[in-house]
Design goal:
Layout: H1 3-53, H2 60-77, H3 83-104, H4 107-117, E1 125-137, E2 140-145, E3 149-152, E4 158-159, E5 167-175, E6 179-188, H5 192-260, H6 263-266, H7 269-294, H8 296-301, E7 309-312, H9 313-327, E8 332-336, E9 343-346, H10 348-364, E10 371-378, E11 382-389, H11 396-399, H12 411-414, H13 423-433, E12 437-443, E13 447-455
Parallel strand pairs: 8-10
Antiparallel strand pairs: 1-2, 1-3, 1-6, 3-4, 5-6, 7-9, 10-11, 11-13, 12-13
The structure holds adenosine-5'-diphosphate.
Amino acid sequence: MKPRIIVSSSLFALIVFLSIQFYTIINVYEVRSHDFDTRYNQVIREAMDELNDYSPEQGLDSMYWYLNKISFYYKDIGHINDAEIADSLRISLRNDIVNVMQAAEPFSRIIRYKLNLQNMDPNLEAGFIIHDFGIIEGFEILPIIKNDTLLLKNKKPVPLNLNLQGSLLDNFRVEQDFFAINFDVYVDFTRKRQVIYSEMIGVLVLITVSILIISLVFYFTLRNLMKQKKISDLKSDFINNMTHELKTPLSTISLANQGLSNDDIVKDPLKIKEYSNIIKRQNKHLTQIIDQILDISMWEKQKINLVLKQIDFVHFLNEKIDGFKMVHEEVQIKTFIPRSSFFIYADVFQLSIAFNNLLDNAVKYKRGELNLIIDLIVNPDEMILKIKDNGMGIHPNDQKHIFEKFYRVNTSSVHNTKGLGLGLFYVKSIIEAHGGELWLESELNIGTTFFIKLKK
Ligand code: ADP
């Protein structure tokens, strides 16, 4: 199956799994919420029954008695329906009704007491919802409160918000001598959500842990899949590149060989020398490539066995640069190298490979004319070598991987130069085996600087 199909189908499965978990949480919440309402309403009922058994003074009867009294008082001072003075009278009547009803609210105390007895959460707000209140004037009822109003103890009355969180209990319609009222008893358990969540904590933890585990497994599986894909891409790139690297010198050798069997060339000693030089050079190149590939032990161990000798790095560097100049006369090289010696313990053979690899890369990945700046900064106990080119540069995304085994910049989009992607990995392994550091700074289409730091 293609990785993209695997990724999208497993992503789909993950999303379905998450949605099911989410749906489960909502369902569990609803079941718990229903259960909460049943349990708490049961307690409220019991409390209300108890309240009804109380003596009238303690129950709602005393509230009706007061309401009747103030209704009579306002009726008695008259003019309550007189438009000019009605407003202020009505406001103070309304306030009196609210005060009486708020003061009379006795049931929340009983409910709390009952909840406490059963170890249930006693945090609640209770009150009345007045639908309408009117004063009886002969055969008429004079409306005083018309809109639904929520009265909670010690709070200002608020116009009723239909989105009530709490429960409506009994509805009362009472008509006495001087007033008529229609109201509901209302209870809101303010910590209902917290109570339900705390009851659900086990389920929530289990679901969260399983989501976490599955997401982690998903993440690591995808990461492994990507890694494997990368490795398999690298492998096939490597085999293609290796075939090319081996075939080019082989076909040059075969061409030179054909030339040597040509009668005209056999007669010309200069030509013979030239052809044999070509064969020699290609042979050396082939040996180098094969050595690099065969040195598998180094790829696995990461650390190379060095044969260390004390050398003057300044002398070594000048020699290598001179050697490079002889082969690449077209390259402009500026050097800033101190005259004084800098002795280090190093494996000359391996250091030469590292240095040559860096310079060869500068040639391989140049853009037009190649200018090199080689700069050696020497401190008392360490030195930094900078090799700066004006080549094609390396994109920041590639810089992160450039020292990895087999890593090559996406060749089709950037350059067509063949290689095995081992050069920089080799250089880094060599420098690190010397206890040194290798890093780079690069800007696309501007150039690259490699830094080598070695200690005494
Ligand atoms: P190879 O040259 O065989 O591909 P290397 O490990 O030497 O392998 O280099 C890895 C990649 O780094 C190359 O494919 C190339 O794209 C990039 N690279 C290396 N050196 C330079 C440089 N001096 N300038 C620009 N790109 C470079």
